[in-house]
Design brief:
116 residues; alpha+beta; two-stranded antiparallel sheet; 4 helices; 22% strand; flat
């Protein structure tokens, strides 16, 4: 089976580009399919949090606060670019896509800082 990854390239044509992909273990959940609910530990926890509430610590480490992985939707794997099957032009287009995304995110963050 040849897996492909489809991304929208923001070029003059606005065409979709299909790139060769392969499956890799999800980095978010390390292939478990679940992770701790970000609402529980999204701002970080310290040893003091666990020491202050042993029942919370027990639940936390036993999976009581786990939710289905937001990145892989519980599938434990995600499609990633298979550079070995890409042409140099496809690799460049993929890099440009992610650079455009990073530039947009930076612009949005700057506008938020200025109150727009």
């Amino acid at each position: 089976m040849n897996t492909t990854l489809t991304i929208t390239i923001r070029d003059a044509n606005g065409d979709d580009l299909e790139l060769p992909a392969k499956f890799a273990v999800c980095d978010t959940c390390d292939g478990r399919g679940t992770h701790v609910n970000p609402g529980v530990d999204g701002h970080g926890l310290s040893q003091e949090d666990f020491d202050a509430d042993p029942d919370f610590a027990e639940g936390y480490f036993s999976g009581v606060y786990d939710v289905r992985c937001e990145a892989c939707k519980g599938e434990r794997v995600v499609a990633v670019l298979d550079e070995a099957r890409c042409t140099p032009a496809q690799i460049a287009q993929h890099a440009n896509y992610w650079q455009d995304e990073a530039d947009y995110d930076a612009e949005v963050a700057a506008e938020r800082r200025w109150g727009y």
